[in-house]
Amino acid sequence: MVVISPLYFLTIYKCMEPVNEKELKGDYILKVMPELTWENWPDGSFQKKYSEYIEENIGLRNLLVELRNQLDYSLFNKANVDGVLIGGNGNLYDVRYIDAYYGDDFIGDDLVKEKLRKIKAVQDTLRKEGITFLLVLEPSKARYLPEHFPPFTIRKGSTSNYEAFADPSIPGIDFVDINKLFLSLKDTISYPLYTTSGIHWSDYGCAIAIREIIKRIEEESHSKLDPVEWSRLRATDFPSDRDYDVANVMNLLFEIEGPKTAYPDFVFRHENPSQKPDLLVLGDSYFWNIEGQGLFSNSFRNTNHWHYNKILYENGMKSQTPVQALDLKKELKKHDVILLMQTELTLYDLGWGFIEQVYDIYYPEDQETLVSYWERQILSDREWWSKVRKQAKKSNTPWRTALRNNALYAAENLKK
Amino acid sequence: MVFSSNLFLLYFFPAVFLLYCLSPRSVKNYVLLIASIAFYSWGAPTFICIVLLSVFSDFYIIGVMHRSDGRRKKILLLVSLALNIGLLIYFKYANFFVDNVNSFLASFTTELLEWTKIVLPVGISFFVFKKLSYLLDVYWKRHAPFSKISDYSLFILLFPELVAGPIVRFSEIADQIIERSKQETIDDRLVGLFRFIIGLSKKVLVANVLGQQVDKIFALDQAELTMPLAWIGIVAYSFQIYFDFSGYSDMAIGIARMLGFKFPENFNNPYISQSITEFWKRWHITLGRWMKDYLYVPLGGNRLSAKRTYFNLFLVFLLSGLWHGASWTFVAWGLFHGFFLILDRWFLDRFKKNWPAAINILLTYFTVLIGWVLFRATDLHQASDYLTKMFSFKVESSSFYFLNDFKFILIAVFIFCFAAANKRIQQFQTRLYEPSMNLLPLSFRSIFALAFLILCIGHISSSDFNPFIYFAF
Prior knowledge:
The complex is a heterodimer of chains A (416) and B (473). By secondary structure, chain A is of the alpha/beta class. Chain A contains 16 helices and 11 strands. Chain A has helices at residues 5-16, 45-56, 61-76, 95-101, 109-128, 141-144, 161-166, 178-185, 203-221, 245-250, 287-293, 328-333, 354-362, 370-380, 382-394, 399-413, and strands at residues 84-86, 92-94, 132-137, 175-177, 230-236, 261-266, 279-283, 303-307, 311-314, 319-322, 337-342. Chain A has a 7-stranded mixed beta sheet. A two-stranded antiparallel sheet of chain A has the order 1-2. In chain A, strands 5-6 form a two-stranded antiparallel sheet. In chain A, strand 8 (303-307) and strand 9 (311-314) form a beta hairpin. Chain A is globular, with a radius of gyration of 24 Å. With 473 residues, chain B is mostly helical. In chain B, 71% of the residues lie in helices and 0% in strands. Chain B contains 18 helices and no strands. Chain B has helices at 6-22, 25-43, 48-67, 70-105, 124-139, 149-157, 170-178, 186-218, 227-258, 276-282, 285-296, 306-324, 328-352, 357-376, 380-390, 404-419, 423-432, 439-462. In chain B, helix 8 (186-218) packs antiparallel against helix 9 (227-258) and helix 14 packs across helix 15. Classes of the chains: A alpha/beta (416), B mainly alpha (473). At the A-B interface, helix 1, helix 2, helix 3, helix 10 and helix 15 of A face helix 1, helix 8, helix 16 and helix 18 of B.
């Protein structure tokens, strides 16, 4: 009966719940107990949802998940998180960054040229309006640490989007290349700019990057900003949650050890806030590290964040507004500095439509055609784009042609 | 409801088992019957009425048939056969028939047959075969029919083997339905539990892990599929299907043993077979026996001419293929095996008799692998493409990668399955399934069983858990 007891024990434990279980980490949707109706029983949907709810709500479930994950990690060097691979020296990678590094998602020279042309036009136009618009190429762990790639991912690559955008053929585009900065510091820096257990820049790496970005903003805007400074670096064996983001989501029983990380003790003056400029950041998840450390708070009066050009976060994520609902021209004028910060992972859709939207305002005679609009929609949808590429490979067509054909079809048959 | 779900493992089965153990003997069958009806209703709520109606009508028809003689008896046999086979044909094969007619018509006209697709009731192939077994065993007077409809209903609907077998024949379980108290010992329950956990581990820790990569390989385009990948995929599939199916059978046999029933074995190390004939004595044994006893032997078996024997084999395997599913790939798979069985009879068995066992095992496994391509492919076109790739003899590079757990499990099961050719390993396997009175082996078994049970529940609980670092990454 000792052997059969777990079958009863877990259920009894769940009913009594003597101890609050540690929550699993990461963002996920909790299953809800479904309501039984006359419709959802016969069609089987109640049973499906109920079973899913039960899977998630057994006694000691979180501990069992951690146990399973720990065994897979310890015995098989496997991370039970979609797309996460374990490389050399225990470095965790998101496989999509590796694919981007090898140029799997390269959008082609002509689309890159067209994008850069529009960026330059937008930058020049906004500059005339007194707005500094700067493109920031955020770093990528794959580009920073390719030597630790899992061996089975190493292959011959081709031109990547990063290489194409970082080496613009149109001169005069203002951009900051943090990849280049990080690689220049790699051999001399004492503390990691990327932790082994994180997928984003480390707190320290982020601080160094923002310090550089502030300097560039000063150069472009011919103004003086309060800098990002720190009095000292605190070295520790215990990384912050931000520096342990992927490892957290792996939900292991035991912490993964890694090299010491460093955390700056910032010196923020917060003087004369009314004289400081207002900042708009179009960014991705790399922004959360900046926000978490308050790195723009010293240099700018207000910082608004348009996440993936989809959601405006204000007051530290307390309020959310769809960007679509905003008056774009009015919003642009509210800010003195606009940063477009994007990492290599999503450079196939540089700007998330922002460049085109602003360009269309100031150059209405040269508006994006419907076909170009749909090409961009296809490129911004990973699954759709992957299908188009597979289709092209199967029919032995250049993928650019397949992209154009699909965009033409969409333009004729789908609503914008 | 599947056995490898927390709902079954931690709620349904413990509740049913507790209730069963606490019930007086006179009530135990009713407890199981209600549980079985609830089990089926959960998974197929719209079909339970059809199933119960079919069970009730069969009980009365067969009861009358048993009391009849001569022509009347034969007519009632035919009526029951028609009802059962008709049920199977309608629910399982009507869609297939209409799709093929429409494919044919599409070559000539745009006017196709209008048809609302019928949903397949889960387990229909299994319970129709059980009903046919009851019908024919009663007709041939191998066993008297049940006097109570509840006993007959329990025989048909008994939940451990309702949806995926093993196919238990009436004559081998009838007495157990009536009386099985001598098989409800602590030893039986323990052996049953160990067997169940072994089956659960096979399914969750082996088959599901292999299946994840097999699905990815079979989903690749022809351009992305390479020869090495194709071979790895089909080898992995051969173990996935074996551990999945035998795991489920182990679970069914284990649960049944805990409830006092002794079910027949369904698998016996099939990949150490030295011929396709032997393979079918080791793979899905209960299906093979059913086909032999209720189809092959009544058709004449091998008692008539060689040509008639070959025809009987051809027909049995055509129907075996179709029984697995309404698709040309299953038909092709059945015929593929039938072809080799005929070859065995004709000359192949005698020809290979003196060959080393290792060669015969490898050749048989290779033949079975080709068959699995037909079984796994979604259609004949995919099967053809896959086989072409397997024999392309081109070593191309691929960005497809395998994680360590897949590699470890694939190698481990490969060794496990072929090591069973050694008699000592087979003896060890047999001892594993027998009760043990000694404290030490019992303790070891208990510890391992507990560990594997916890691992399996952990796997099941985390299979759908896929958190993001940030939702809007």
